[in-house]
Amino acid sequence: xxxxxxxxxxxxxxxxxxxxxxxxxxxxxxxxxxxxxxxxxxxxxxxxxxxxxxxxxxxxxxxxxxxxxxxxxxxxxxxxxxxxxxxxxxxxxxxxxxxxxxxxxxxxxxxxxxxxxxxxxxxxxxxxxxxxxxxxxxxxxxxxxxxxxxxxxxxxxxxxxxxxxxxxxxxxxxxxxxxxxxxxxxxxxxxxxxxxxxxxxxxxxxxxxxxxxxxxxxxxxxxxxxxxxxxxxxxxxxxxxxxxxxxxxxxx
Length: 252
Prior knowledge:
The chain is built from five helices and twelve strands. The chain has 252 residues and is of the alpha/beta class. The chain has two domains: 2-108, Beta Barrel (Elongation Factor Tu (Ef-tu), domain 3); 116-248, Nucleotide-binding domain of ferredoxin-NADP reductase (FNR) module (Rossmann fold, 3-Layer(aba) Sandwich), CATH 3.40.50. Strand 8 (122-127), helix 2 and strand 9 (150-156) form a beta-alpha-beta unit. The chain is globular and about 55 Å long.
């Protein structure tokens, strides 16, 4: 399995980014849109580093996946989940306002990326805010009007906690080559195609069977435990480990 790297290449420089819009994604996740002083080209699945500096000089840095597609120009979208006790996520949720300037550098990452030219089928598995880089891939796929067979499996506590839920449902309704399946862990599922438990090997095997042919690539993003369960399930279902790309998060 290929682990996503979260170290910035030396040439990357910090730049000012102004918050241009903020909207709610879920009760715990907000979408922040930024105007960059030095816009850059990105690849679906990459991330950026954010740096906050306090008046006394104290600095805090965190990495956040990019939700924007490479085709999205003018604004960069990050989706940030509020973590209890998290100094950076709490700043964005409780303090940050439209018009604020923050420091940012990127794009970063060369393993957890996908381009329509890579083909498919494509299997995307996200836990909570781990859905964010997968949305960049899906938006890129849609922008290119790709018909690559794609299936997303997203885990969340409740229906309201599914990141980008309405967008995923809209994609699934309008594109017969894309399917969205949800695993809800703390309330009954609302659709026959969804599950009412944590993602396990059985779910992975059943969902994989919905693709017309075995996936050419699988991308998993979430906590350590989530990624391990999904990756182990995929290998047990017959997927080659070399086709499984993983990225783990856990910063505050």
